[in-house]
Amino acid sequence: MSILNVNQLTKNYGKRSILKEITFEMNEGDIIGLVGPNGAGKSTLMRSVLALEDVESGSVRIKGISNQNPEFFRYVTFLPSDNYLYMHLTGYDHLAFVASIYNLDTKEIDEVIQLIGIRTYVNNPVKSYSYGMRQHLLITLSILTKPLIILMDEPFNGLDPTSVIELKELIRALHAKGISLLISTHNLDILEDLTNTIWFIKDGELVKNDMLIDGNDPFQIEVRMPAEMSLENVMSDSQLPYRLLDNRLFTDPAYELEKYLEWLIKNGVTIQSVNRSKRNLEEMYKSFYEVNVR
Ligand SMILES: Nc1ncnc2c1ncn2[C@@H]1O[C@H](COP(=O)(O)OP(=O)(O)OP(=O)(O)O)[C@@H](O)[C@H]1O
């Protein structure tokens, strides 16, 4: 179900056109990766959606409510790339401040502190936090109001590998709760791990029909063979076209997946996993932005 509708959003800086009549919608439970080189307009797009920028034209609505209406901000939160925390206040002060605006009780603050795991330092002043701890506080703030959508602008910047893993897990957990996420990042590997939906921004336009998984790509079936049997022997009798790599079988997209599964099971082969092979995001990025590597 569509929850965010952006229609013909246009933004200029002086004579420069940054967003050109951008139209898109986000559905419940979407994770969308927003990709583009420095200066492509990713932050401008997020800020314009949130009415933090004056735009030339266009409309933005969540469940039909315009971003000119304060109620809009009950449903969406923003994790900006620049830190806007107050250094002399504690993490808890920040949470209590937002809770007071939205009439939330302390139980709800405690829930998010627990969920993000910031209890050991939430009562210390923010100036004593590391970069990752500040990022965790910002994330805690962004989920306190139970939004339907979170816009995250480069959330992985400056995080150590442990914090990146934790943030990816958290994003998956938010997604499992039905929250939709629009995430801009330059880290293509992380995005590839999180989602199949990538939107490119180029020359002020959004190209959003690039799915990492294409209906025409083969399936990859990982199997475990009974003792003294080989996958090659089982498949050579099948009359189905295939390609093998170790204990993995790649199907031919012209044939139904079920045919392969039926044949394997009939021959006593254990199916361990079935995936659609993903296209490589870095390759897509290089060809889309015509990056030539010498
Ligand atoms: N306040 C401003 N005044 C004038 N130009 C601006 C302003 N903010 C951004 N720009 C310009 O708009 C363009 C888009 O900037 P934006 O920050 O949205 O890009 P981005 O894709 O988020 O880049 P990055 O990946 O570097 O964060 C850039 O060329 C930038 O110089």
Structure notes:
- The chain has nine helices and 14 strands.
- The relative contact order is 0.13.
- The longest helix is centred in the middle third of the chain and has 16 residues, at 161-176.
- The model has no long low-confidence stretch (mean pLDDT 89).
- The chain has helices at 42-49, 91-101, 106-116, 131-144, 161-176, 188-194, 231-236, 257-266, 281-288, and strands spanning 2-13, 16-27, 31-35, 57-62, 65-66, 76-79, 149-153, 180-184, 197-202, 205-211, 219-224, 242-245, 248-251, 270-276.
- Helices cover 31% and strands 29% of the residues.
- It starts with a strand and ends in a 6-residue tail after the last helix.
- The strands form three sheets. A six-stranded mixed beta sheet has the order 6-7-8-3-9-10, with helices on both faces. It has a four-stranded antiparallel beta sheet with strand order 2-1-4-5, with helices on one face. A four-stranded antiparallel beta sheet has the order 12-13-11-14.
- The protein is of the alpha/beta class.
- A hairpin with a 2-residue loop joins strand 4 and strand 5.
- It has two domains: 2-211, P-loop containing nucleotide triphosphate hydrolases (Rossmann fold), CATH 3.40.50; 219-276, no CATH class.
- The protein is globular and about 70 Å long.
- Adenosine-5'-triphosphate is lined by residues 13, 18, 36, 38-44.
